[in-house]
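Dear Dr. H.,

I hope your travels went smoothly. While you were away I took the liberty of generating a structure for the chain from your last submission, since the lab meeting agenda had it listed for discussion. I wanted you to have the full record in hand beforehand rather than looking at slides cold. The sequence, exactly as received, is reproduced here:
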Amino acid sequence: MDQNVREIGHDLDIVKNDHAESQSAMLLQITNLTERQSRMEDDIIDVGDQDNN
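The corresponding predicted structure, in token form, is as follows:
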């Protein structure tokens, strides 16, 4: 019984770590996309400024 409890606890730790890693990866993707969007918006503003001159 104790062995089973330890094995289940170990499996849960693995799942928890995998979840944390995938959550970190998603946050990194969101950060990268946000930065790209910000640069694209800056480029659009720059092009708009050039059209006005």
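Two observations you may find useful: The CA atoms of residues 25 and 31 lie 10 Å apart. The mean pLDDT is 91.

With kind regards,
E. W.
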